[in-house]
UniProtKB/TrEMBL annotation:
Entry's family note: Belongs to the glycosyltransferase 29 family.
Enzyme Commission number(s): 2.4.3.9
GO molecular function, one term: exo-alpha-sialidase activity
Function: Transfers the sialyl group (N-acetyl-alpha-neuraminyl or NeuAc) from CMP-NeuAc to the non-reducing terminal galactose (Gal) of glycosphingolipids forming gangliosides (important molecules involved in the regulation of multiple cellular processes, including cell proliferation and differentiation, apoptosis, embryogenesis, development, and oncogenesis).
Subcellular location(s) per record: Golgi apparatus membrane
Keyword annotations: Disulfide bond, Glycoprotein, Glycosyltransferase, Golgi apparatus, Lipid metabolism, Membrane, Signal-anchor, Transferase, Transmembrane, Transmembrane helix
Spans through the membrane: 54-74
Protein name: Lactosylceramide alpha-2,3-sialyltransferase
Source species: Oreochromis niloticus
Recorded topology in the membrane: Single-pass type II membrane protein
Predominant place of localization: Golgi
């Protein structure tokens, strides 16, 4: 009988077989992982409570609102004004035609006598120009065609106007008045019509079209600056030699702005946020210089434009330019146009006389029907009602 006293690991070579117990111990066992138990989450930990939800909704609304307004108040692409050092007028025929017209006598009631020759007869006579405090009217239409629903705002604005109606200096009783409506068209650039324009009795300018720096082409006097709050010039230089600032009202806030500018009481920050473009806080004119355009001017002008529309559309408003022409017909015996006409056949042409943007940008606007307006203006010129100095119509 042989007794095994000791077995040393050193006695085994690399190829020797392990004992069953050792082999079992050396064999790797498959690892079994326990499934991780995720504790249930209370829905109150996931969803916002009512106060938090209201707060974040308000922040989202303000963010969207600012995303819309910032491009209007802080435009990224500002077009620089162009003031070329040209020496010679680009079209002597324009100057000669204008000089010939001014050399002749003023002809009383010329416009009114020729309105009957329009191919499309319209009622463009005896339309009130400015709103008068002493003549309250039952407004049946909303802005800009009337003041229905904003009568209280109108009353406050009129109370701040010392002379709300047509000033005596613009009334044509006993005198013949010549007027020129100066548009913003690029056709004025290089025209050298400035000295001729300054000779008219009434000079109507539109929106923020500048005078300062462009006197050679557009003149230096302004009898009426016709605009709405967002279109008012920001530079105080544009109000020099200006007699009347006439406001077209599109909303109740426009009347509040008129009151604010006259009384020197600034609008609140919240009120300013509702303008689609930044408005001026101060206009260096006396309270007597401010007028509110009668909405019947807008209404009648719009009705005229509708008669010339090729495709009948709703909610198409007349431009300030067309409105200015109809306004001039109420005050003036003879009316001339300068800087009117959109030449859509030449998209590369200059749109405005004071900046570099081109004619094709007009294709993107949908508020006005410039084609219908051009037909209306052509009809006025053909009937002899108005004279087109620059030949753009």
């Amino acid at each position: 009988m042989v007794t095994l006293n000791r077995l040393s690991v050193a006695d085994l070579d690399d190829s020797s077989q392990q004992l069953p117990e050792a082999a079992e111990a050396a064999t790797p066992r498959p690892a079994f992982h326990r499934k991780k138990v995720v504790p249930k989450t209370d829905s109150r930990d996931v969803f916002l409570n009512r106060e938090e939800n209201l707060f974040f909704s308000l922040m989202l609304l303000i963010g969207c609102y600012l995303a819309i307004l910032i491009p209007a108040y802080l435009p990224l692409d500002k077009v620089a004004a162009i003031r070329d050092d040209y020496q010679q007028p680009k079209d002597m025929a324009v100057l000669n035609r204008s000089a010939s017209l001014l050399a002749g006598p003023c002809l009383p009631r010329w416009c009114l006598n020729h309105l009957k020759h329009l191919s499309c007869p319209v009622g463009l006579q005896d339309i009130p120009v400015f709103v008068q405090q002493e003549r309250p009217e039952p407004w049946t239409l909303s802005p800009p065609l009337g003041f229905q629903g904003i009568e209280q705002h109108l009353a406050v604005a009129l109370a701040s106007l010392p002379q709300p109606g047509l000033p005596p200096s613009l009334k044509r009783e006993g005198s013949c008045m010549r007027c020129v409506v100066v548009g913003s068209g690029g056709i004025l650039h290089g025209s050298h019509l400035g000295s001729h324009i300054d000779q008219y009795d009434i000079i109507i300018r539109l929106n923020n079209a500048p005078v300062h720096g462009f006197e050679r082409d557009v003149g230096s006097r302004t009898t009426i600056r016709l605009t709405y709050p967002e279109g008012a010039p920001h530079s105080s230089n544009e109000y020099k030699r200006t007699s009347i600032f006439a406001v077209v009202v599109f909303k109740s806030l426009d009347l509040d702005w008129v009151t604010s500018v006259i009384t020197k009481q600034p609008l609140s920050f919240w009120s300013k946020m509702w303008f689609w473009k930044e408005v001026v806080d101060h206009i260096p004119l006396t309270p007597e210089s401010f007028k509110i355009v009668h909405p019947e001017i807008i209404h009648k002008t719009g009705q005229v434009i509708e008669k010339y529309e090729l495709n009948q559309r709703n909610n198409i408003l007349p431009t300030i330019g067309a409105t200015g022409v109809v306004m001039a017909l109420q005050m003036c015996d003879q009316v001339s146009l300068a800087g009117f006409g959109y030449d859509m056949q030449h998209p590369e042409a200059r749109l405005h006389y004071y900046e570099a943007i081109r004619m094709d940008t007009m294709k993107s606007q949908v508020v006005h029907d410039v084609t219908a307006e051009k037909l209306f203006l052509k009809d006025l010129v053909a009937a002899g009602v108005v004279t087109d100095l620059t030949g753009g119509v």
